[in-house]
Amino acid sequence: MKFTFSWLRDHLETSATPQAIADSLTALGLEVEAMTDKAQALKDFVIGEVTECGKHPNADKLSLCKVSDGNATFQVVCGAPNVRQGLKIVLARIGATIPRNGMVLEKGVIRGMESQAMICSAYELTLGDDHDGIIELPSDAPVGKNYAAWAGLDDVLFEIKLTPNRGDCLGVRGIARDLAAAGLGALKPFAPSAVKGDFASPINWVIEGNTKDACAVACPVVLGRYFKGVKNQPSPAWLKQKLQSVGLKSISALVDITNYLSQDLARPLHVFSGKKLGAGDLTMRFAKNGESLLALDEQTYDLRDDMLVIANGHGVQSLAGIMGGMDSGCKLDDDEVFLEVAYFNPMTIAKTGRALNLLSDARYRFERGVDPAGLMAGLDRATQLILEICGGTASTITTAGQPLPAKPAINFNPQIIKTLGGIDLPNDTIAQKLTALGFTIDKKKESWLVTPPTWRGDIENDHCLVEEVLRLHGFDNIPECPLPRAVATRVVDETGRRIMVMRRALAMRGFYETVTWSFTTEQLARDFGATEVITLQNPIHSDMNSLRPSVLCNLLLAVKNNQDRGFDDINLFEQGLAFRGVAPDEQWRAIAGVRYAPTQLHWQKNLPLDSFVLKADVAAAIAAIGFNPDNLQIKQDALPAHFHPGLAASLNLGRDTIGYFGALHPALLQHHSVDGPVFGFELFIDKIPASRAQSTRTRPPLLLNDLPRVTRDFAFVVDKKHSAASIIAAVKKSDKKYITAATIFDIYADAKTPEKQSVAVRVTITPDDKTLSDGDIKNLSDKIIAEVIKSTGGELRQ
User: How many angstroms separate the CA atoms of 497 and 707, rounded?
Assistant: First the structure.
C-alpha cells in the first residue's frame, strides 16, 4: 500500500513529521517498507521549453532540439515521437541522477551530434510506466522552476506492508484512523452529502435467487446510479497528481475517480458505459460453463459455474469484484455511465481470482474484506466527484439485496489485558484506546460488551481486543519479565515411543533422517500406487500438487538430488503420513528408507548392496520395539508396482501386511532418471503389534548358562518353490525349547535336476537344564528332519 504525506493529511490533522509517522506506523503493526522523499529524488529536474525542434541529420527517428531552462539553452538529441517546438517539458541537465536506474547524466554524442541534456519521460522519473513519450506540461508551466515543487511532487511517499487481516488500511483513511487513535493527530470528519436523483435509473440491479441462495451469500448487497450528460475528459491536475504520486496511471476522469476512491477509502467501484450496456437490468449471478469474458486487460477468460459475474441480456459484462469487461468499459466519448458499488464475499473473490490467475486492485481489496457498511458513503462521494469533474445529472439510487447484519458484541473482561498482555492498564485507558479505534463499549460490572466497527471484519474474540489495546499502548512499552519456571512433562504415546526407538535403530545402521513434504508430484503419486490422485487446491508449487500415497515417494526424489550432486553413498529414512484419501481413516503412519551405493566398503572386500541388507535393516527396526522379526512371514506375491517383483518381498503377520522391502522397480527408476539399483523399505507402524512385555523399572533377571551348546548341519533337497524362510520356520517349529537359532549357509543346484535345490541349514541347540546326551541330540535331529520333510515334501540329502 502506497500513499503520500500530503494525501494522509487529507484525512489526518497532524503536526507530526514524516519520520514520526513512519515510526508510529511500524509500531502499530503497519510496517513501513520504504519512505521516499520525492523532493530529494527530483531535485535535479526543472521545467524547460523546446525552443527549436528539427530532424536529426543522421537518423530518421531522432529529433535535434534546442531546450531552454530560462538561463541557458542546450542542444538535446531526443527520440520521443511527441517532442515539438514550444512544448514545456521536464529537463535533466548534466550531473542529474536519473531515478529509474541511478545513472548520472553526462554529455554524449548520438549519431554524430552532441546531446547536452535530457528530456524526461514519466518512466525515467519513476512517476509511471509510460515510456513511449516525454512528459508534456501545460503551456503555463514556469520555465526554470523545480519540477517537483511545481507539480506538487515534493512529498514523502510511504510504502507499507500490510497483513491480510488489515483490509481497512488499504485506504488512506484507514491508515489515518489508526494514527489518530495512536495520538498522532485528529481524524478529520468524513460524511459526504447525499445527492438527490433527478430521474429514475434506466438500469436496475437483480441478485439471482433469494437471500439464502449462494449468489446472495457471494454478493449480499449492491447499489447503483445512472449518470447522463457527463463529459469524460482528462482528469484535473489534482486528481492526476494524486494517482501519479503512488504510481497509478491517469486514464480518464471517470476511471480515475474510481481508482482514487479505491486508494482513498478502500472502496473499489466500477463504472460501466451506459449506452454499451443497453436496455435491461444488470443481474448478479454465477457464470455458466462455457461463458467467457474479454476483460479490460484485453485477455479472454473462460468462466466456470462457481464464478460470480455481472450480466445482462447481452451476456457477461464483468467479473464481479475483480475486473470489468472490455465491451462495456468506459471510454472518453461516453456521456452516459452506470456506477456500481457492491459488497462481495471475500472467499468468492479469492477463489475466482486464483482460478483465473487474475490480480487486480479491486480483487486485492475485496478478498481482504471491505467495509460492508460503507457502500452508501462511497456512492455519495463518487457521485459528488463525478458531478463536480464531469458534470451531468444523476439518477435515483437502485439497490438489491440486504446489508449484512452487525457483528455480535464480544464479551470482554478488561483484566485479560494483564493476563495475556503482561501490562496493567486502568479500565478507563483500555476503554479510551478501543473507542479511539471505533469500537463501542457497553460496560457491565466485571465484563464489557464490545462491538467492533464495521470496517474491522477481522475482530473475532477477546484475544483480538487484547491485541488492539497492545498495539496502541506500544509493543515496545511492554515490560520484559521472565516467565515462571515450569516443570516440563513430555507425554509420549505408544506410537510416538515406537517411532523414536525405530529412528534410533535406523540411525545406528547408518541411515540419515530426512524430512520432506507430505505432498509430491502427480506422476510420482501414480507411480507409487495412487489409483485416484488427491490433488491440492492451493499447492505451494505447481509440481508438488498431490498428497503422497507412500513415504517412499519423496525419498526417491532425494536420491536423485543426491546423485545429481555426485554423491554415491545414499542412506536416507523418513517417518510420516501417507494418504489414500482425506478422511482420518484414510491415512497411516509409516517409516521408510532407501539405500543406494554401487559397492559397500567392507574391511575384507567390497560387498554389493542387495535386498538382504534391507531385510536386516527392517529386522533391526522391528526388533528395536520389542517385536520378534522371526515371527513374520516373507512373501513375494501381491507386491506394489514400484518394487522389483523378483528382488522384493512383503512382511506379513497372518493376513496383515506390515511392510515391504527390496529393490525398487528399474522402470520406475528409469522414468525418473535415477541411477540404480536403489533398494528401499516401508513399514506401517500402526500394523506392527505392540510388545506384550509390561514396562517396568526393574531389570529382568540375568540367566547364565554354562551348559555346552551343540550345532548340527543338515542338507535338504527341496523344490525351488519353497522359500528359505519356510525351511527355517519348519526347523524352529520342530522343538521350541532347545533350538535357539537356524541359519542357511549354503544352497546348491544341479543342472540335472533344475527344479530342485539343496539347502544346507546350521542349527544351534542350547540346553538350559542338562547336558544333552547323544540320544537326546539324535532325537532332536530326527524331529528336525521329519518336520522339514513334512513341511516341504523334500528329503535329507545323502
Answer: 38
Kindly give the pairing relationship between strand 221-228 and strand 323-324: unpaired
CA distances from 198 to 176, 375, 396, 399, 400 (A): 35, 20, 7, 16, 20
Is the pLDDT at 705 greater than 80? The verdict is: no
Question: In this structure, which amino acid lies at residue 120?
Answer: C
Distances from the Cα of 637 to the Cα of 175, 652, 657, 756, 792, angstroms: 68, 11, 11, 21, 19
CA 592 to chain centre: 28
8 Å CB contact between 445 and 415: no
Cis peptide, bond prior to residue 677, ω within 30 of zero: yes
Q: Locate 676 and state its grid cell.
A: 540404480
Q: Residue 243: which residues within 8 A CB-CB, separation 6 or more? A: 235, 249, 250, 256, 259, 260, 263
Q: Which candidate, 458, 515, 578, 581, places its Cα nearest to that of 163?
A: 458
Other CB atoms within 10 Å distance of the CB of residue 291: 17
For residue 228, the tally of other CB atoms under 10 A from its CB is 15
Q: Does residue 329 sit in helix, strand or coil? A: strand
Residues 495-554 have pLDDT tens digits of 888 999 999 999 999 999 999 999 899 899 999 988 888 888 888 888 888 999 999 999
Q: Is 630 exposed, middle or buried (0-12, 13-18, 19+ CB in 10 A)?
A: middle
In this predicted structure, what is the pLDDT of residue 318?
Answer: 94
Residue 697 binned pLDDT confidence (cut-offs 50, 70, 90): low
Beta bridge partners of 82: none
Cell of 695: 514396562
Q: Which of 772, 774, 796 is nearest to 785 (CA)?
A: 796
Angle at 45 between CA 43 and CA 51, to 5 degrees: 155
Which residue reads 508551466 in cell numbers? 141
Q: CA quadruple 397, 402, 406, 407: dihedral positive or negative? A: negative
Q: What is the pTM of this model?
A: 0.63
pLDDT, tens only, 222-237:
999 999 999 999 999 8
Q: 3-class SS at 466? A: helix
Contact of 664 with 599, CB cutoff 8 Å = no
Q: Are 466 and 422 in contact (CB under 8 A)?
A: no
What is the grid cell recorded at 510? 547408518
**C-alpha pair distances (Å), 259 with each of 74, 201, 239, 268, 294:** 39, 24, 10, 7, 21
Provide Rg for the chain, Cα atoms: 40
Please name the residue that has the C-alpha cell 554415491.
568
- Distance CA(240)–CA(232), nearest Å, equals 14
On the CB side of 555, CA atoms within 13 Å amount to 30
CA angle in degrees (0–180, nearest 5) for 403-405-409: 150
Q: Measured between alpha carbons, how far is 537 from 298 in angstroms, rounded to an integer? A: 27
Cα–Cα dist 757/751, whole Å: 10
pLDDT at position 606: 58
Residues 6+ apart with CB under 8 A from 233: 252, 253, 332, 389, 390
The 8-class DSSP code of residue 194 comes to: P
Grid cell of 254 as nine digits: 471517470
What is the helix, strand, coil percentage profile of the chain, to 5? 30, 30, 45
- Containing 783, the helix (H) or strand (E) segment is helix 774-792
